[in-house]
Amino acid sequence: MIIDCHNHVGSDLLFYLHGDFPYAQHLVTMHDEGRALGVDRWIVFPFVSHLALDVTAFMDNEIKDEKGRLQDIPYAFENRRLMKECYELFPEEGKRMLPFVMGDPMRNTAAQEKELRKLRGEYRFHGIKMQTTILQADIKHLRDRGKVFVELAAEWDVPFLIHSSVAESDLWAQAHDILDIAEENPGVRFCLAHSCRFDKECLDRVQALPNTWFDNSAHCIHCVGAVQDLPYVAPKARRFDSDYSDPARVIMDLAAAYPKKFMWGSDSPFYSYAAEINGQVVRLISTYKDEVDALTAGGTEMVERIAHTNIRDYLGGTILS
């Protein structure tokens, strides 16, 4: 069984209105394309921006809270929309989905808790996802106003999946901050997305902590970033040693170095990214097939371990038929 542990379903008004790509993914399209490539199950969650932000500022790529909100509670609409899509609109495809809810650790967290408890009474979900870079909401708020999410994860025995960064310009999702929080909460499971941007020090900490894993979401374009020394991956002095011109080789090396902590995920549809940044168009393009091919090149044992066994261990009590 191949489980893809990192996928977005729905749409993102910030990306759409600012002119960035991707900005949407339909559950059935993802399912059908993935099934044709041999994927059996998907961990899914909403896109990143939420309607409790000022949507009128999205065209200028600004995150504001003051006005222009379509909702008062972060992700209340988006999480319920995902559950309806998985369980009611497309139940045949939905039975292969493992939905996670999204959370904002900084804004109106008490109301988010109330909404999540209500949602939990109506639908089954398997974890909590956070992408705090886009929200400009420091992940360290999991220690204070966002601590409710840690408490819910412990109460429900569900894991976190958290976007991670090592870029100095990213003030909101530093991998070392996520690892510090994981170390402070040994009873809660955490996954750091994007291979900790290949930062060996962070990957080694994942290896050392019993309650942490990492996924390699958007792997192929991260390998491009390493080859080109782009700022969204760890600099050479801190980078895990591998041949980044060969994404399959990198997966095999990571799987050998971190045999029980590495989980495979495509980050669909964010295995590709295109946007205008500082007046210049940036295009980092991969495909679902490229991501799966890089995985399966490592052979059956490795695939079973990083795309099934490790993910089941991370999920805990989730039963997969």
Summary of the model, kept short:
With about 325 residues, the protein is of the alpha/beta class. It has helices at about 15-20, 25-35, 75-90, 90-95, 110-120, 130-135, 145-155, 175-185, 200-210, 220-225, 245-255, 290-295, 300-315, and strands at about 5-10, 10, 25, 40-45, 95-100, 100, 130, 160, 190, 210-215, 260-265, 275, 280-285. The longest helix has 16 residues, at about 300-315.
Quaternary assembly = single chain
What integer value in Å does the Rg equal? 18 Å
Strand content: 5-15%
| CATH second-level architecture | Alpha-Beta Barrel
CATH third-tier fold name: TIM Barrel
Total beta-strand segments: 13
Domain Amidohydrolase-related: 3-313
InterPro entries: Amidohydro-rel, Metal_Hydrolase
Keywords: Hydrolase
Protein name: Putative TIM-barrel fold metal-dependent hydrolase
Descriptive overview:
The protein has 321 residues and is of the alpha/beta class. It has a single domain, classed as TIM Barrel. The protein contains 13 helices and 13 strands. The protein has a 6-stranded parallel beta sheet. Helix 9 links the parallel strand 9 and strand 10. Helix 11 packs across helix 12. The chain is globular and about 50 Å long. The N and C termini lie close together (10 Å).
Keywords for this entry:
single chain; 321 residues; alpha/beta; TIM Barrel; six-stranded parallel sheet; three-stranded parallel sheet; 13 helices; 13 strands; globular
